[in-house]
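Hi there. Long-time user, first ticket. I'm pasting a complex I've been working with (about 651 residues overall). I'd like to know whether the download I got is complete or cut off, because the file seemed smaller than I expected. Thanks.
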Amino acid sequence: MGHLILRVTIKILFAPIILFAFYVQFHGDYGPGGGFQAGVILASAFILHALGFGLATCQKVIPPNWLPAGMALGVLIYAGTGIYTMLFGDNFLDYDVIQPDSHHHAGQHIGIIAVEIGVGLAVACTMLQIFYAFAGREPEPMDDAW
Amino acid sequence: MLMDDLPVLPVLLPLIAAPIAVLLPNGRAAGAWATLIAWLSFYLAMQLTSIVATAGTVEYAMGGWASPLGILYRVDLAGAIVMTLVAGMASVTFPYAMSSSAAEIVPSQSKAFFAMFLICFSGLMGVVATGDAFNVFVFLEISSLSTYTLVALGAKRDRRALTAAFNYLVLGTIGATFFVIGLGLLYQVTGTLNMIDIHEKVQAAEEDYGRVVRAGYAFIMTGLALKLAMFPLHRWLPNAYTFAPSSVTAFLASTSTKVAIYAMLRFLFTVFGFSFGFADVALAVFLILGLVGMFSGSLIAIFRRDVKMILAYSSVAQIGYMLLGISFATVDGVGAALVHVVNHAVMKATLFLAVGAVFFSLGSHRLSAYKGLGKTMPVTTAVIIVGGLSLIGVPLTNGFISKWALVGAAYDSVLAVPSLAIVLMIVASSLLAVAYVGRIVWAMLLEDPVPGVQAKPVPALMMVPMVLMALLCLYLGVNADGLVDLCRQAAEVLLDSGLGYGGVR
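Hi, the file is complete. Here it is re-exported in full:
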């Protein structure tokens, strides 16, 4: 099954791609990047794996029914951060309230990281879900039907 | 504590509730959850309206970032009225959807259905609450994208829902693109996205970059006109309304075009204002297209054989009335447009909920299925008659109130078309409404039922919202002073904001 060179390459690339996704995720508030890009990169690692080793293998690692929960959880982490700041008496998404005494606006950093983690989770799950939905479709016209 | 967050809570609540609805065990729980959230939002929106009516416009800085820099939420009276309207419509259509969706939606999708409903609801509330021009685009897209999905979910009963949703998607996206191109042009010359801030800077910008500002204006107005189904740009609406699930049609018909009307008012008056020379051209265009829409919509409605289609085309005609009111650009005119926004939402919700009940019982919304409905489904028939009379504008129904306000406003304004002619046209197009409502009523009351057809009883969850809305039609027709006064005040605030001091006196 499949192409040997492709499969070996995918095995070598898989871990660095995920590592890079986390780099983009956590470096997002200092440089280019952030949750959206990180989520796409993370999902692309699994999509690459599924392309090389088949959809079934990939779905054994991340079952399709996890993904809607992941998407929902991502949005909830984002919104939950906002609600948290609201419950502590500040405006929606006003992160300063997380670390009120800090002179370095540590609250802003913590807040944006929490939000970006939510975005990353939601985006990664959505990307993978879209891929599963398209890849899992039965091919409608058979090859010899032309 | 949380009361300070009132401008943002009715938007946030459904947005956060949507992912939770996906995590709930089954569709029924998701429906109950969505209903609860809608009621809560309705309560909050009413609180907001009462605060805004007494204390004036409220503002809320997202994330604590001050106004021109950050995203500002700004709710004035017109916004509060529309927010209450949207939340009110959500709180009657969501419980209705719990019953109707069981038959119309694939069971495995019903959780996602309610999540989409909540997201659409949140998007519509967001368009109204925000004071940031780009945020309007974001929320407009949130609500539109979820609407395409909701329309497509009607595919279980009729596969044509898929093409209707796709047409709507293409046209809606073109509208959104026009809107965002216009915003981009404005941002280029003013350097800001805050509505009040744009208003302050657009005049100076017009002197230097007149063409860019006018192009931006045209793009924004065209984009919004597509979203609100102004006459020649209405082609997405009839099919989308006809093939969507009944509860979705009722919700969309009573909210989404209304919110787009609100966004247009916001851009016409708050963002550009009267000092902007090009505004007269747009208002003249709205006047003409509003009049043409009134007639063409009603005329097409007369010749349709599908009741949902008749009502959808009648929506195009009714949007014409609202545009007419806006095009007067007087307090009375805009006030009448707002009154009609509320009244039309109530009567169309009544009618579409009743049509959904007939669809539930008989499995069809063709006119031929309505024969003898007066004998088989008396309550639903009564509801349709009340809604139909409102649509015509018969006294003692709310349709009369808005047409009366519109006729009064038309008399008092100086326009390109003589005002007497406009008044006569309003009356004439009401006569066309008599024709298409008459066809439905004729079939229901004067024809014999199709033999052998057994009507399934309508469940209480569908019956109660529908009767409630019919009673509201009658109530707003008898006791209308409160609403008319409120809308007049709202129009005053809205037009004041166009005069250059941003509505803050």
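A couple of notes from our side: Chain A touches chain B at residues 68-69, 71-73, 75-76, 79-80, 82-83, 86-87, 89-96 (CB under 8 Å). The first helix of chain A runs from residue 4 to 26.
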